[in-house]
Amino acid sequence: MNYDDSIFVEETSQQRTAKLKRAIGAYLRRWPYFVLSILFFLFMSWLYLRYQTAIYQSSAKVLVKDTRRATGTDLILSDIAVTNTSSGIDNEIALITSYRIMENVVRKLDLSISYFRKGKILEVEVFKDEAPFLISVENFISDHDRRPFQMIARMHQGRIDITLPDGQVVQAGINKQFRYGDNLIKILPNPARPAIDYANAVDELSVNVNNLFNTTSRLQSNVNVGLENNFATVLGISHTSPNPLKSRKILETVIESYNEDEMYDRTIEFEKTGEFIDHRINIINEELGDVEGSKESFQVSRDIARLDLEVTSAIGTKTSLEGRLLDVDTQLSLLNSYRNYISSKSMSDILPQDISNASGAINESVSRYNSLVIQRNDLLAAGATEMHPDAENLARNIREFRTNLLQNVDKQLQSMQAMRGNLSGELGRVSAFKRQAPRMDRITRDIERQQQIKENLYLLLLQKREEAAISLAITQPKAKLIDPPKSNYTPISPKKFNYYVGAFSLGLLLPLAFIYTRELLKDKIETREDLEEFIKGKPLVAEIPRVDSVHEHHVVGSDLSMISEAFRIMRTNLDFVLSSIKTDGAKVILITSSIKGEGKTFVAMNYAHILGQLKEKKSIIVGADIRNPQLHRFDREKKSIEGLTEYLYHDDVDYRDYVRLSNSDGKTHILFSGRIPPNPTELLMSDKFDRLIAQLRKDYDYVVIDSAPLVLVSDTYHISNEADVTIFVTRSEITPKSVLRIPLEAAEIGRIKNIVFALNDISSSHSGYAYGYKYNYGYGYGYGTKNRKRSLLSRLRTFGR
């Protein structure tokens, strides 16, 4: 008895398409909930944004004229050495956003005191230029250590009442001061609003007083500076604040403070430079006077007036010899340096040419030596080791060439030293004529040289002092304003579009997830397809639409309502099933269900009445659910009437004595259940019940038996043999799928004959026939629950199942 064999059968494309349509339909038919969810979250987003303070951004552009800072040292050394003092644009950005600059901005604008005006919903920040009055707070300890506090200022009737944090109210006024803790508070008129009539003005402000450190740190985090592009010194400066005017003022003050800081630094540098130059000028002036005095003393002591005319010829010869001697000394110095350089270098180093030009042979040897070094280096670079034969051979040749080169240099040194000796001897001979003249000339030249150096240095310092004074006089701001501060009045926070998109997405996804989870965990029969999937080919003879609570005990008649048409379709389908069953007399139809509340009595009563509408046909309904009689609900006047129980219990009675006509149509016969007996199972298993059915087959054309639920009690199994067809009633959104195994297994083993199924209480969204559209009957009834009309409440209840 395995009813899941079909799961191994591959689904057809039509089946897959049908499943896909059902899956999509589960979402589409609940479109109102998507709309409600989206509208709800959009409303919540709107409500949230309504209570959020809008943040605006203001921005400005400045051109940093030169990223190299010309200091006083640069000014002095500009003609002497090349210096690199570029600080870089990154340093300028760091300087603009530094704590020192931000603290200066806070002090200038007094940002540690904030003003707020209460609105209908939010408190709106008011910049100091917009406030009717200003508040000055001086701390006896330190502005950095001041404890933040808040106070309320109310201006009316020419005075200002200040409500302090401790609840104390101080009556103050313009230019009046009072003390609160370590703070001295003073009310000042606002110079930006001179036209205010304080005697008649009425206003209320919330004033927040913060310490300097917190305010400066918060300002640092709100000011952003960055390059506009990577190849320019144009900086973009921005600030975010709820008050655009405040942001623009802050940006203006940031740029102003940066330029002032630069100007101050340059002024200090130039002042220090001027002091240094003046000090050096005084020293050099004294030294220059000492040199000129030494020259005068020397000429007086030697009785010399025009030494140059007296020793012109001797001096000329001496000068020529000195020049040659100087050249020789220079070459000797270069050769000695060159020899030391050669000796200090390794075998892999290339030697420079002899710049003394003392001998062409040395340079030729150097060229050959370098050629051998290059060959050896190339050999080692190619992967050879120093033990390689070629490398050893080249090393040996290099050492020999180095020895020869040093010998050539030594020979050249000896030659130059000999030449120097000759020149010295000749100079001594020339100097013998006027031995004292060179000494005096040297002394004179030394004095004149010192004098010339001092004079040149004195003139240079005078020039630099004038340049420093001119530079200080024409110093301009370093940051040139390109675009003045302007505000973007589209808030950067909160971004309404992002919130609304998020709300729309959440409103869409939440019902989607809920429906998906509900469909995934659904264990109730809802649609015709759900039922057909489990009954495995058994006939489905009826889809009974939902009726409202007013009509839940209604009995169909000859009208053309949707519910009547549904039972007529059921009658037609069952006639087709019954036509294939050969019986003597009336057709006996047993109607049962799985559990209580699935509407089997409703189906049985209405089916019996639909059968009663057939001409020349008689039908009767038997209330065989004697444990829980329900037939009397359709006829309140006959609630206590005797019926099947009394007939089975008493002997020698005729069933006709207990049969009543229906008040609905006056044609259908009803055998009510009667009183609830203590032994219902034994009564239904009696031969008298079998004889009753046999007699009813003779007297009627259709016998409808309303039996007890199949899963709860065994009564139905005892009377099922008397039935030609068993109608198993299921109810949409009520009947568990798992209980369908019970009637199917019972039918397979023969405990129930010719079982067919009916789906009761199906809503318009689940109906496969679309009654309300096809027949235009106003589909919208609901059976078995209260208020089943398609109201919002009923939709929410249905959606929550």
Describe this structure in words.
This protein is of the alpha/beta class and about 800 residues long. It is built from 23 helices and 21 strands. The strands form four sheets. The chain has an eight-stranded mixed beta sheet with strand order 14-21-20-15-19-16-18-17, sandwiched between helices. A six-stranded antiparallel beta sheet has the order 3-2-10-5-6-7, with no helix packed on it. Strands 11-12-1-13 form a four-stranded antiparallel beta sheet. The chain is elongated and about 185 Å long. The model is unreliable at about 1-10, about 65-70, about 80-85, about 770-790 and about 795-800 (pLDDT under 50).
Please give the largest β-sheet. 8 strands, mixed
Radius of gyration over all CA atoms, rounded: 58 Å
Average pLDDT: 81
**In terms of structural class, how would the helical and strand content be classed?**
alpha/beta
Number of strands: 21
Q: Low-confidence segments, ≥5 residues, pLDDT <50?
A: 1-9, 67-71, 80-86, 768-790, 796-801
List the helices and strands and how they pair.
Elements: H1 13-28, H2 31-50, E1 55-64, H3 72-77, H4 89-96, H5 99-109, E2 113-118, E3 123-126, E4 133-139, E5 149-156, E6 159-163, E7 169-172, E8 177-180, E9 183-189, E10 203-209, H6 212-222, E11 223-227, E12 234-241, H7 244-302, H8 307-310, H9 312-344, H10 360-381, H11 389-431, H12 436-473, E13 479-493, H13 496-521, H14 528-535, E14 540-545, H15 562-578, E15 587-593, H16 600-612, E16 619-623, H17 644-649, E17 659-661, E18 669-671, H18 680-684, H19 687-699, E19 702-706, H20 715-719, E20 725-731, H21 741-748, E21 755-762, H22 771-774, H23 792-800
Parallel strand pairs: 14-21, 15-19, 15-20, 16-18, 16-19, 20-21
Antiparallel strand pairs: 1-12, 1-13, 2-3, 2-10, 4-9, 5-6, 5-10, 6-7, 8-9, 11-12, 17-18
Helix pairs in contact: 2-13, 5-6, 5-7, 7-12, 9-11, 10-11, 15-16
